[in-house]
Amino acid sequence: MLEAYDWLVKAHESMGNDEHAVSSLNSAVALSPMSILRQKKLALLADKTENFAVAKKAYAATIKLGKNSIHGSSADYSGLANVHLKSNAANEALKILYELNQQYHNDPEAKLRAALLETEIHQAKGNKALAQQAYAKTFKLNEQFNKQISRELRLETAKTFYLNGNGEICDEILNDLIKTNIDDKLFIKDIVTMCNAIIGESHAETLIQHIKKELVDINNKGVSLFQEGNIKAALAVFEKAIAKMPNNQTIILNMIKIIIHDIKTSKHGPEKIISAQSYINKAIQLGIPHNQISGLQIELDTIQYNTNP
Q: How many domains does the structure of the chain reveal?
């Protein structure tokens, strides 16, 4: 019952017991070493808990399995290279960087990972001029691809900007990551951990509190307009908020409620029903609890049935 191990890992992670999560996942990987997703997860968790021996082994297994899998990623190479860097083995990291460039030479995300790695490797080896060239490449690639890249890579990019004296761009990235992922407790924890280790203990908390206040203000304004009967203005407020914070659960739920109310109290075309359904689908995708969504889905289904009996 390997799935039981997976759920045990999730439970340990949710409780903040990352070492126990590594132990449980290690047991699962011993039973099923060909599972790339488990090896990948083990590598990330072991890296996070500074269990570098386990991390190296899991990253190496992930890279090998990834050559014949859709789950292979440039992140596996950069993860292994970073573990070598943390183990003071810059030359080993350089070998992995070469492999990364060979395997993913046309991948934008891989190019940014490679530039970040190159910056760190040359800094570790004391090659200031080469490190500066790599950092300039990082700067250019971040401008080019920006929000197209994964959130984990953007967090790593923010760290590199800060360490190279560009706190302003670092904060821009952090603010956007917090706004977009404010409901994802594990990822917000990763942001806090990075800031505590690199920038300062209160830095992330200050950004988070500011964004939470902004969210409360937006939500109160939208709800107030809705209660006053100004549905159009309320929808506009939440549409603007979703453009800024596309994964915020409270805003999405309020948006669904207002659209359904609008459909029930005014003339409605199919576009409003489609819009409500797309937000419900997004809410499910984001993991919003079933009990918060099911009633809204029933209301929408009832409207559709009454429209097309």
A: 1
Cβ pair 86, 78 in contact under 8 A: no
Task: Single out the residue of 149, 63, 160 nearest to residue 116, CA to CA.
Answer: 160
| 137 found inside a domain | yes
Does residue 109 carry a pLDDT above 80? yes
Element holding 260 (H helix, E strand)? helix 249-265
- Give the other-Cβ count within 10 Å of 254's Cβ: 21
Is residue 103 included in any domain, yes or no?
A: yes
Cα(29)–Cα(25) distance, integer angstroms: 6
Give the alpha-carbon dihedral of 150, 154, 157, 159, to 10 degrees. Answer: -130
What DSSP letter does each residue of 62-103 carry, written as one string? Answer: HHHHHTTSTT--HHHHHHHHHHHHHTT-HHHHHHHHHHHHHH
Angle at 180 between CA 177 and CA 6, to 5 degrees: 90
Would you tell me how many other CB atoms lie within 10 Å of the CB of residue 290? 10
Mean pLDDT, residues 32-60 taken together: 94
pLDDT of residue 309: 53
Q: What is the CATH number of the domain that holds 14?
A: 1.25.40.10
Give residue 43's domain range.
2-171
**What's this model's pTM, rounded to 2 decimal places?**
0.79
Q: How far apart are CA 7 and CA 15, in angstroms?
A: 12
In a domain, 259, yes or no: no
Q: Give the integer Cα–Cα distance in Å for 182 and 104.
A: 31
State the residue for tokens 């290690």: 26
Question: Tokens 């490190």 sit at which residue?
Answer: 131
Average pLDDT value for residue range 232-244: 88
**Rounded Cα distance, 157 and 177, in Å:** 12
Q: What is the DSSP letter of 257?
A: H
Residue 218 lies in a domain: no
